[in-house]
Amino acid sequence: MNTSKQVNVMIGLMFLVALFFAVNVINEPNRADTARHHQTETFSKRGAEIYVNNCRNCHGLEGLGPEEGAIAPKVNNPAFLILSEDNKYGLPPTSEGVALGIRSFLTTTLECGRKGTVMPTWGEKYGGPLSDQQISYLVTLMTEGRFDLVVKKGYEHDSHQNPPATREDILSDGTGLALTQKNCGQYDALTAREYRERDPFAEVAVSKDSPGVETTSSSDATPSSSPSSGGADDALVQGIPVGDYFLSLCAACHGPNREGLVGPALLPSNLVEPDQIYIDTLHNGRAGTLMMAYGGGPVLTDDEVKSIVTWLKTVEP
Questions:
Q1: Confidence (pLDDT) at 108
Q2: Same domain, 276 and 166
Q3: pTM (whole model) above 0.85
Q4: What pLDDT is stored for residue 155 in this prediction?
Q5: What's the number of domains the chain is made of?
Q6: In a 10 Å sphere around its CB, with 0-12 CB exposed, 13-18 middle and 19+ buried, how is residue 73 labelled?
Q7: Which structural domain range is residue 287 located in?
Q8: Which of 7, 72, 147, 288 has the fewest C-beta atoms under 10 angstroms from its C-beta?
Q9: Predicted local confidence at residue 59, as pLDDT
């Protein structure tokens, strides 16, 4: 081969190499998206398996909590969704700041459990059974809203049993559960409200209509009590509105909307007995249950106990 041909071959090879790299550079975003989708799907599937093995007894077979007869809060919750760039709703993605807050809330709650509730510590570094990676799988499951995978995995799991487990076999009635006495987290029903009641679709509407505003806090949009009227809903317990006090102390067992979880529902329509019965229960607790005594100080004064009972019996959620 003469020199001219060698030069032409070298030029041709260099052109092919340059073309190869150019195609890869152009295609890199697609490759990255494909890899990201694959990772998200993998994490969601692993999260579904962990959920079926560890969480559905309390949170429900579909993660719907009390809506399907479970004793723990709903975790199949649109409030936890983090919308990606190419989400199926065709909406703008969740901002990085909001997404970080949601992931932090879910991760902390899973790792640390919740003091004063039956939610145990799950994080391995705090004495629980799940690694950081496994916690991440569960967070991905919830932020992606992939409870379709939970239903599928649960069906596969149950169909292999002989006889197959029924809903009644799987869902806990609270028997044998104990309250978590301490944890590493800072959330209660009151401080968790902005995450649990968040509406990701309303956030999008606000950001479109109001330049510079990305989110709206549910604590601003949804007051914890009725407008001031000088009635039971304005009572204070330990210096805070009784509705907020209920969220901070009682909602873990009775539900943030008093709908009932481990403890019974506390709606005005349910509380038909004389006030003194409920005052005595709150003051003295109830033997053989998770209901502890709150009255007689140092937790609640007699007047505060009466204020809570009046509020429960007269103020609708």
A1: 94
A2: no
A3: no
A4: 92
A5: 2
A6: buried
A7: 223-317
A8: 288
A9: 96
Residue 268 per-residue DSSP state: T
Per-residue confidence (pLDDT) for residue 17, from 0 to 100:
72
Q: How many CB atoms lie within 10 A of CB 174?
A: 15
* Rounded-to-integer distance, Cα 82 and Cα 251, Å: 25
Closest CA to 48 of 186, 151, 198, 188: 151
Tell me which DSSP letter residue 125 carries: G
CA angle 233, 239, 245 (to 5 degrees): 55
The tens digit of pLDDT for each residue in 42-53 reads: 999 999 999 999
Shared domain for 62 and 150, answered yes or no, is yes
Q: Is residue 179 part of a domain?
A: no
Whether residues 124 and 244 share a domain: the answer is no
pLDDT digits (tens, 9 = 90+) for 225-278: 443 444 676 677 777 888 888 887 788 789 888 988 888 899 999 999 999 999
From 138, 154, 173, give the residue that closes a domain. 173
CATH number for the domain harbouring residue 262: 1.10.760.10
Residue 18 inside a domain? The answer is no
pLDDT value at residue 225? 40
DSSP 3-state of 210? coil
Sign of CA dihedral 57, 185, 307, 193: negative
CATH number of the structural domain spanning residue 97: 1.10.760
* DSSP character string of 268-314: TTT--S-HHHHHHHHHH--TTSS-----SSSS--HHHHHHHHHHHHH
Question: What residues of the chain score a pLDDT lower than 50?
Answer: 210-230
Domain boundary among 148, 173, 198: 173
Average pLDDT in the chain = 83
**Distance between CA atoms of residues 108 and 113, nearest Å:** 8
Q: Is residue 14 part of a domain?
A: no
